[in-house]
Structure prediction request, 225 residues.
Amino acid sequence: MAAKILIVEDENAVREMLSFTLKNSGFDTFEAINSEEAFDVIKKQNIDLILLDWMLPGKAGIDISRILRSSKETKDIPIIMLTAKSEESDKVLGLESGADDYITKPFSPKELVARIKAILRRVAPQAGMQSVNYGQITLDPSTHKVMDGNNYIELGPTEFKLLHFFITHPERVYSRSQLLDLVWGRNVFVEERTVDVHILRLRHSLKPESAKYIQTVRGAGYRFS
Ligand code: CA
Prediction:
């Protein structure tokens, strides 16, 4: 499902450019030109992230940020502050008001999209935090611990995600490019053979009887079974 981004910006050209860029990157966008419109959208929509202009008519971005942070319903919505100001003290002020990140105009759309994705990734892992198991393997996303039989095993972050994906998606063949999309995330520029490297590491970390669950399906990809 597309993440919902609210753009709060009074300059039409900038707001439209942002909306266009974000839609092209697969986001759902909502627009507001001042704090009243912004709060109205936030009340009605489940907004995932707010791009907040510093200089707005009426309430400034920094004040809106403080208000959002002080309410239980809105305090966890990530905020990226947009501003023409580049003074270090303003940056500190922006972050102190509760913004998660800060981007100075003029900025490259590519950089903005990358920052948005990074923040969304950081706040996303709430889903699927319960511990899962398969055979002798138990994996706990909240503590990042993996047990194979009676032993704790050490996994790198990618092997951990890969194993979590396999345990929660057993008995199906996934191609390397599907695994890249689903485990590494879209828009990651990694070669397909990287998947093989991490599969190999994961197999070596597991006990031989558990490693057997990770099956190579010739010409197709991998299956956990
Ligand atoms: Ca403005």
The chain has a mean pLDDT of 88.
